[in-house]
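Colleagues,

Please find the record for the two-part complex below.
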Amino acid sequence: EIVLTQSPGTLSLSPGQRATLSCKASQSVNSNYLAWYHQKPGQAPKLLIYAASSRATGIPDRFSGSGSGTDFTLTITRLQPEDVAVYYCQHYGTSVGYSFGQGTKLEI
Amino acid sequence: VQLLESGGGLVQPGGSVRLSCSASGFTFSNFAMGWVRQAPGKGLEWVSDISATGGRTNYADSVKGRVIVSRDNSQSTLHLQMNSLRVEDTAVYYCAKAGFWFSVDVWGQGTTVIVSS
């Protein structure tokens, strides 16, 4: 089983700043199967990034993903109030299914 | 593209519930599907997924042996049969469509299952 650990638990920043969210896997993973989501209060999650660094349809270029092996990062530039959400990383393994990180709460 | 879940409700411990997800706006039979749940105030937990043809299924350890995922490609419908329900199964259950590289590119609005006596 691959465990994804996200940090920090909560991130408090101001509008216009840059957010850096971390996702560490318990063992090396195929970065093609690493995705990021955000979930705004009362809503279903929404896909932001797939294959570690590819933006999903309609996601602004303020959102970017990077990383490989065990360390992955979601970066959000020029923070806006509407970016308030919980952010999750996710991995898929063909024999073990999906796993999610515990989430990072972004406050602005 | 839309996923619409149904079937949630209040169930007694030890009871059963069958969740359904009706898909529209895409060729359902071409995509793997799955279920993800979220307990109150908690994070996302993958429950189960099923391949496009239905020939392969995966289950989280927390539900293995109590849950069966199935699909009817002729009806563009995904199902989750949950048996021997426990209080800790209380959650919002989201239907999920697999996208590129098995990301989840479409989510339903969720259906709530409450397991309580």
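The longest strand of chain B covers residues 17-24.

Comments are welcome before we finalize the supplementary table.
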